[in-house]
Amino acid sequence: xxxxxxxxxxxxxxxxxxxxxxxxxxxxxxxxxxxxxxxxxxxxxxxxxxxxxxxxxxxxxxxxxxxxxxxxxxxxxxxxxxxxxxxxxxxxxxxxxxxxxxxxxxxxxxxxxxxxxxxxxxxxxxxxxxxxxxxxxxxxxxxxxxxxxxxxxxxxxxxxxx
Length: 162
Prior knowledge:
The chain is mainly alpha-helical. Helices cover 56% and strands 4% of the residues.
């Protein structure tokens, strides 16, 4: 039995020495690049998904009157893809302009009354109550005018979003 193990060990060593002694030959193949046609096609099944998905929304609501892109259209950042009907938004801007003009007239009237009553109050020709009422009317008119200016800016901005 010992002899068989020694023979087996000797055979393994001989094979290992023989295999290590051989050098593997490397062959390189070169070719020149040439223009040609693709002659093979590959058919595959699966689902294509975009790398980036973007949700599109609007600042204002309304009925879409014009559409400049369709489903799966390629669009660029800043490109107009739809236009909202402007009738309501234009009407809101006109209303805001009218409210602002009305508030401006009221403000200017109350300001003149306040300045007149202030001079009269300083000379003690009108009561404190009358002066405070005039002052309150002036401050309310001023705040109303400032709000109407903001409402007008908002209406103009909404129209631009359409």
